Amino acid sequence: MILGINKSIFRRLVISYMLTVLLGLCVVGLVISFLTKIYIMDSKQKELLREAKRVNLAIQNATVVDDRFKELLVFFDQSYDTRIWIFDLQGKIAATSAKDEVYVGKSVDASIVDKVKKGENIISNMQFAGLKESMLSVVIPWGKDNQVYGGIVLHAPVTGMNETITNLRETILWGTLFGLLLSAIIASYLSRSISQPLQQIERVAATIGMGDYRKRIRIRSKDEIGDLAATINQMVAKLEQIDGEKKKLEQIRHDFLANVSHELRTPLTAMQGFLEALQDGLIDETAKPRYYDIIYNEIMLMNRLVDDMMDLIKLENNDISLSRAPVDVEKVLQQVVFKFESEASEKNTGIELHISDNLPKIYADLSRFEQILNNLIKNAVKFTENGLISIQADEDEQYIHIRIADSGIGISSDDQEMIWERFFKADRGRSRKSMGTGLGLAIVRELVSLHHGKIEVQSELEKGTTFDLWLPSVEMAKKNNY
């Protein structure tokens, strides 16, 4: 196809440019030649008329054709390089400027004599009898005042004029050939400047057609081809983005199915084993309540997993609408802390709560705000033993800043960017007892974003983890129409 473009567009552009220039030069040459011929003929005619009038002034007082009369004609012949005839009112030639001419006594056309008698000037390209070559002739009355003796004829050969016109045409021809050569060079350059970008566009388009969106068209011209290249580059960038998002969604779908399968397989396998043991009577009566508790916990874990997945899917699809209202942060924090105090004390972990005085309310959905705090504080309790969990809330410009810091096992720097992903669990070596669904922090991030807030994490292994949460105050929400 590239070869086709090169042969087709390049060749057609060159040929079209050359034909246009050739046609233009030919038309201009013909017009110049035609106008020049008319100009030369017209100038020569006017010159002959002026010369004929000078001859008449010289001989208008002579009524007899004698030797002096003929000498004057010879003088004017040599001066003007013209042949001069004098004829009378009967049209008979009375004298000529050339000694060897034998036209004396012959007659000119009667129509010419009639016009001369009327005092008219005649310009003619007609061939007079006796002339052996083409002449441009003028005829004026011979006489003085209103008295006409006959006519004066001046003949000028057209050979010189024809040679001048022929030379002009040859010059125009050579100029046309030179212009055609120059136009071929210019046309080749212009055609290549058009065909080469098109070839580049064709190559990139072929690459795009094969699914490679990394190529870009490198054309810097500020013309229509440059605009086309920029448009194609924008299209390729968009296609690359769409393809990347498609691959990411496909990977998320694959990971989602793999993670869901993994998360469901473990409790199902455990429950299947326990139930088979119970059915076969392999479990003592005293131990059955413990097995029932394990099965119940596994079922609750599966329920939480399904609930978390449904919440996350709704959040990502914008299917959850918040019911916002002013919320007292201190009151909600006290309730959530009270809920986890018992679990924390079992792990010999203390919880401290520090609330700034006159803390403004936030503009949030109460149940979703509680869900955010539940996930963050639950994680802190889950991964902290014999330590301390500190919860602070204060005003930070128009946000309410909530910090939840623990002295637990921490998160590695490599895992800190991944904890917001679905099903990601930072420590794979932890016991199942302390493990959740892996969706909690992904849900937290979506809920915080939905509230126009932000959340950050800082952590160091074996030293603890700190989550910083900012949510807009009522004043800020009203100001920004949240």
Mean pLDDT: 80
Note the overall shape: rod-shaped
**What does the largest sheet look like?**
5 strands, antiparallel
- The radius of gyration over CA amounts to 56 Å
Provide a count of the helices: 11
**Tally of DSSP β-strands:** 12
Strand content: 15-25%
Distance between the termini: 56 Å
Low-pLDDT windows of residues: 1-6, 428-434
Q: Give the H and E element order.
A: HHEEHEEEHHHEHEEHEEHHEEH
How much helicity do the residues have?
55-70%
Helix-and-strand structural type: alpha+beta
Order of neighbouring strands in the sheet with most strands: 2-1-5-4-3
Task: Please tell me about this protein's structure.
- The chain has helices at 2-59, 67-80, 110-117, 159-209, 224-279, 288-316, 329-346, 366-382, 413-416, 440-450, 474-479; strands at residues 83-88, 93-96, 122-124, 135-144, 147-157, 324-327, 350-355, 362-365, 388-396, 399-406, 454-460, 464-472.
- With 482 residues, it is α+β, with helices and mostly antiparallel strands.
- The strands form three sheets. The protein has a five-stranded antiparallel beta sheet with strand order 2-1-5-4-3, sandwiched between helices.
